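Suppose a colleague, Dr. K., hands you the sequence of a protein chain of 131 amino acids and asks what its three-dimensional shape might be. Before reaching for any lab equipment, you can write down a predicted structure in token form. Begin with the sequence itself:
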Amino acid sequence: MLINWKWVSVLSIAAALAACGGGGDTTARGAIAVNTSNGYGAIVVNYTSQPEANSDVVDKCADDSGAGCAVVLEFSGNGTCGSAAWASGNGVWGVGSAGSKEVADSRALSQCIAKGGVSCEIPPWLETQCN
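The predicted structure, expressed as tokens, is then:
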């Protein structure tokens, strides 16, 4: 009977650790936020929590542009890159993520163009970033 109680204790501890996040998710997470009224954006990478990445990217965007920033893309995965393209001609944004900077940039530019962007480009001040 003593052996059964030991197993019950071991299983209880294991269940508690699993419920509390024991072991942890080490997937890197990132986010992109933009302010559509003034053309400013921000990218953050290498967060362990998506809500934390989202909060920090909005704060980073708002620090430089004022209120009005919103998360437009969440991305995750070690080695995943996030990119944003902006059309200075009419203020349209496009975003993309991929396993390389080049493909993420291409996806962001394609989305910008598809949304009607005029003169879409990756802003030099908003560098593509990778987890």
